[in-house]
Amino acid sequence: MTIGVIGGGAWGTALAQVAAGSGDVLLWAREAEAVAAINEAHENSLFLPGVPLSPAVRATTALAGLRECDMLLVVTPAQHLRAILADFGETRMPLILCAKGIEAGSLKLMSEVAADVQPLASIAVLSGPTFAHEVAAGLPAAVTLACENESLARSLAERLARPFFRPYLSSDVIGAEIGGAVKNVLAIACGVVEGRGLGQNARAALISRGFAEMTRFGLAKGARPETLAGLSGLGDLVLTCSSTSSRNFSLGKGIGEGRAAADLLADRRSVAEGAFTAPVLQQAAREAGVDMPVVDAVCALLEGEAKVEDVIGGLLSRPIRAEH
Description:
Blueprint: E1 2-6, H1 10-19, E2 24-28, H2 32-41, E3 57-60, E4 71-74, H3 81-88, E5 95-97, H4 110-117, E6 123-127, H5 132-136, E7 141-146, H6 150-160, E8 165-170, H7 173-195, H8 200-220, H9 225-228, H10 231-240, H11 247-256, H12 261-266, H13 273-288, H14 293-302, H15 308-316
């Protein structure tokens, strides 16, 4: 059995390392430098330096090479998912979507995008509190594997499960996706709190109120509350809002320290998905009639429409209301 991984960034490489426990892995990456390093030195020195990879992980720049795989882990940036799956060509193999975001323009979740482009494929979503470098190093982690087909979900989970990597099953694909998309935006806000030195109380309050926004939006889109309170929602939110290992948190921290969002984004090799998801999420929330003031604040900061002090003041001066 060969497992394909589309996407040679840090998370794609970490998942390739996990998948190598059950057979050969073929990883596709755009960057010839990363491909050469993986094949010759068994290390992705470009995106995950210092982590030795299993010899079972091979890499290629030829997307068509993955067509003979038995299943695909799709780990591309959210805004590129449609184009990559279209380039891959029609397939019936299971697709496990690992990107976290909402497509600009269509406002579709990744599973909806995949269904548009690959209507014959079975689709699952993998999401949860995972830093790539920890997973690649074999440190303990748990994730949600969501798929409407329960037997397929169990089969996929058994292929990916390791003593250090535990998938929990769910049939709530929408809930798993919304948690992953929204938490990236909220992590930027928590990074701003850190960068501005506003303290742990402020961060805890922001995580709690951000989770309330995630829940409101998720329920409006048909997610289950227990999914949003699980690994792919609250679990991922807590992790991403608490460490500079998060690209989104680091972006927010830089903004809080006074740097321009545009400069921070231009200076990054890896993608801070929350920066691209924020305006799309804001539009989707407005169309759904859902109030998301923290998301609105992040959008204002990313667009350079407001200063950090003004955004914080605006959030704190909102009318007094019941918590629930």
